[in-house]
Amino acid sequence: QEHEKTLAMPNGELRVSGKGKKLRKPRTIYSSLQLQALNQRFQQTQYLALPERAELAAQLGLTQTQVKIWFQNKRSKYKKIMKQG
């Protein structure tokens, strides 16, 4: 019987050694306060520089990856809405 070990990857993915199957991290649920701050920041700028991202993540108690992905998703949604008119 193979002993499986779960490793936390730097990108936030959880990987099971041996079989190489990816176990996805549960979806992040943002608090209304976090969403308010993220949306407010997005209205100011659609792109964050690394130090800005680090600062925002620290302020909101999120990881930099969570902030980065939220902004990516938001830009994608925004462009989709703009395309529709």
TrEMBL record:
Protein name, entry field: BOX5 protein
Entry keyword annotation includes Lipid biosynthesis: no
Principal location: nucleus
DNA-binding residue intervals: 23-82
Species of origin: Piprites chloris
Molecular functions (GO terms): DNA-binding transcription factor activity, RNA polymerase II-specific; RNA polymerase II cis-regulatory region sequence-specific DNA binding
Similarity-based family: Belongs to the distal-less homeobox family.
Residue span, Homeobox domain: 21-81
Transmembrane annotation, as ranges: none
Key word Plastid present: no
Keyword terms: Developmental protein, DNA-binding, Homeobox, Nucleus
